[in-house]
């Protein structure tokens, strides 16, 4: 049985914001939380992907909390070795067939030494290939024991033929390693697509796994990915930490990569994630970068991004949002399309939802997700609806302790 949802909502907000402060500036006294709040803190740490980092950086000595963090770090370190072994196999196979790929996000953050093994969880491996190499990449993954699970507009997801998801709180060493295959690096914010593929794919790639062309290219991808998560109310603390760590390696010239040299477009979408990083990690982001982007961001988004908290734009916010991301619209027409798509989902959105229900453990057995859209819409209009992904982790945390 869950405790009253008002207590869960308040506890998630309090613990999320406290964990964010502790990760950014370690050394705070252990909070005076009750048993439920410590349980919700473990749920928040899992949702935001920071349990193993907190094991290293936080000295809070609650016994059950310490055991949980230490266990998470062990699982993540073991899983990291599995991922590293798989990346080596992918690299060798790609070299043998002359196929160029880019290992994205978490793989690169580890490769350049921003994280040690066991510090940062990786849910899957992300790979970028050229459109004309998509089928060759699929064949390569199939040769490694993978099968295509489903396709979304952003990527194709492959899963191992052998292995099932492990139901537990947080990371588990035996969780299958999925692979997401991309041919474009893009996000819908919330309707118009921002595409930065040309900045990410090397101009002269070599067979095998390639690095990003520069730290600026990596930062562009991290910020666009963060923008997509902010727009969809799924921001994670680990993403803020990624950006803050990479920012310490950025020269003034590196930040120039945010601006597209080919068409002169401003990275207006980078302002909200940069502001959020600056809120929790003071002095991480150069003021000059923020000032250069601010005029190109819409007044509504610019105003909202000044005061949004991590809780409000993440899974730590317990209630579903009726119109997530509408504040990112660049025009009234785009806002209207956002409302229309919410009232009458596209066929693509329906298929994506069906794939999620079929493949995601946290949606299994949940009657809400299989209701007709009209019933869900009526429910939204009459009462607050909790997020299924959040409730799943909360239940696992309560059971775990």
From TrEMBL:
Which InterPro entries does its entry note?
A: NTP_transf_5 (IPR039498)
* Top-rank taxon, per record: Bacteria
Q: Which Pfam families match?
A: NTP_transf_5
What is the name attached to this protein's record? Answer: Nucleotidyltransferase family protein
């Amino acid at each position: 049985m869950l405790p009253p949802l008002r207590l869960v909502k308040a506890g998630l907000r309090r613990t999320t914001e406290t964990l964010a402060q502790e990760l950014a500036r370690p050394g705070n006294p252990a909070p005076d939380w009750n048993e439920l709040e410590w349980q919700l803190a473990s749920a928040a740490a899992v949702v935001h992907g920071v349990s193993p980092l907190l094991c290293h950086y936080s000295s809070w000595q609650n016994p059950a909390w310490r055991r949980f963090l230490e266990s998470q770090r062990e699982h993540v370190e073991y899983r990291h070795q599995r991922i590293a072994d798989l990346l080596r196999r992918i690299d060798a196979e790609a070299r043998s067939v002359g196929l160029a790929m880019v290992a994205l996000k978490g793989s690169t953050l580890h490769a350049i030494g921003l994280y040690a093994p066991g510090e940062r969880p990786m849910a899957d491996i992300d790979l970028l290939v050229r459109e004309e190499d998509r089928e060759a990449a699929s064949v390569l993954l199939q040769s490694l024991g993978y099968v295509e699970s489903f396709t979304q507009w952003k990527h194709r997801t492959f899963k191992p033929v052998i292995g099932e998801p492990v139901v537990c709180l947080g990371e588990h060493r035996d969780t299958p390693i999925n692979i997401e295959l991309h041919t474009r690096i893009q996000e819908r914010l919330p309707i118009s697509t921002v595409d930065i593929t040309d900045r990410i794919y090397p101009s002269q790639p070599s067979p095998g796994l390639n690095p990003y062309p520069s730290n600026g290219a990596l930062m562009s991808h991290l910020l666009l990915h963060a923008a997509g998560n902010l727009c969809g109310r799924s921001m994670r603390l680990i993403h803020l930490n990624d950006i803050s760590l990479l920012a310490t390696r950025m020269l003034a010239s590196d930040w120039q990569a945010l601006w597209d040299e080919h068409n002169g477009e401003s990275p207006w979408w980078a302002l909200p994630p940069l502001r959020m990083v600056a809120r929790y990690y003071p002095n991480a982001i150069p003021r000059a970068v923020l000032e250069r982007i601010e005029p190109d961001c819409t007044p509504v988004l610019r105003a909202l991004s000044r005061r949004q908290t991590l809780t409000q734009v993440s899974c730590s916010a317990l209630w579903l949002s009726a119109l997530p991301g509408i504040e990112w619209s660049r025009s009234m027409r785009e806002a209207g399309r956002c409302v229309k798509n919410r009232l009458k989902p596209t066929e693509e959105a329906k298929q994506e939802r069906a794939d999620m229900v079929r493949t995601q453990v946290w949606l299994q057995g949940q009657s809400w997700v299989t209701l007709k859209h009209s019933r869900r819409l009526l429910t939204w209009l009459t009462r607050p609806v909790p997020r299924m992904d959040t409730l799943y982790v909360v239940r696992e945390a309560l059971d775990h302790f």
